[in-house]
Amino acid sequence: MSIPDNFELAEFVQRVLGEDLGTGGDVTSNATIEPDASFTAEMNARQAMVVAGLDVAAAVFRALDVQVAIETPVVDGERVEAGTTLMRLAGNARAMLAAERSALNTLQHLSGIATLTRRYVDAIEGTGAILIDTRKTLPGLRALDKYATRMGGAQNHRMRLDDGVLIKDNHVAVCGGVEEAVRKAKAAKTGLQVQVEVDRIDQIEPALEAGADRLLLDNMDPAMLREAVKLVHGRVPLEASGGVTLETIRFLAETGVNFISVGRITQSAPAVDIGLDYSLASTN
Predict the structure, then answer these.
(1) 136, 158, 184, 226: which is the annotated catalytic residue?
(2) Is 277 known to be catalytic?
(3) Catalytic site residue from 101, 142, 158, 226
(4) Any catalytic annotation for residue 101?
(5) Range with the lowest mean pLDDT among 85-89, 135-139, 278-282?
């Protein structure tokens, strides 16, 4: 699988390398390594993980050495064990060292999201519920963060504010109620489905009567979720959300909701441990 078609990879690579190299470049490598020195290296997983971001990491290396040879024995979305080689490289030593941190940071971050996402997906396996992500992503990295959740087995919710109508509690408060907020959204004729957040059972029927296409059941415990599922009886899809953890998600999924959204998979995923290990050094 490749990164999103609409993601500006070249611009991203230029930005992250510019942040790391500054105006003077890698002064340490330039001072200690001959310009024509070359070597091969392996990028290895130091823990079990789900891989995401190989194409991005490769693009970082190629930006500084267009002739670098890159081999990827694994693919994004693949589960690997500690010790697995993720990438093999052969190229200019100065370029590779200058690109190393930017490439590793990106791959570790995205693989961390994919790895945590897979744990949540595994936790609800067999329930019929689908894990979806949120807009709780690092600013500027949303496309990549959401790509990583897909590699972990989740589905993407809306990418931006303009590709989905989601009426949250603050919208409801300003409008004066769930029913009025939904009616206004439907009257706007955006061509998009209207989803509304409810946190009480008595808000469900007014939301449906006003034309809601989907309900977000916010911070409801399993008992309330079961009641909501029974009341809605399949009329619209139901999404559970709010404070979901690995310890609670199975209980929520077993209530019969269609989707469970988890902000933690992008907001709180720890980076995984990946190293770039040099296997051969030489000069031309």
Answers:
(1) 136
(2) no
(3) 101
(4) yes
(5) 278-282
Chain segment 74-130, per-residue pLDDT in tens: 999 999 999 999 999 999 999 999 999 999 999 999 999 999 999 999 999 999 999
Note the pLDDT of residue 181. 97
Q: Write the DSSP string, 131-197.
A: EE--S---TT-HHHHHHHHHHTT-B---SSTTS-EEE-HHHHHHHTSHHHHHHHHHHTT-SS-EEEE
**Residue 107 DSSP class:** H
Q: Which of 207, 209, 191 is nearest to 239 (CA)?
A: 207
Domain with 77, as residue range(s), is 9-114+270-283
* Annotated active-site residue in 179, 197, 213, 239: 197
pLDDT tens-digit map of 154-172: 999 999 999 999 999 999 9
Which residue among 168, 200, 230, 235 is the active-site one? 168
Q: Please indicate, yes or no, whether residues 77 and 203 belong to a single structural domain of this protein.
A: no
* Residue among 133, 145, 218, 239 flagged as catalytic: 218
Catalytic-residue membership of 197: yes
Residue linked to tokens 């310890």? 247
Is 71 among the catalytic positions?
A: no
Question: Mean pLDDT, to the nearest integer, of 179-191?
Answer: 96
Residue 95 resides in a domain:
yes
Straight-line distance from the first to the last Cα atom of the chain, in angstroms, rounded to the nearest whole number: 36
Domain of 181: which CATH number? 3.20.20.70
pTM tops 0.85, yes or no: yes
Q: What is the CATH number of the domain that holds 36?
A: 3.90.1170.20
- Catalytic annotation present for 214: no
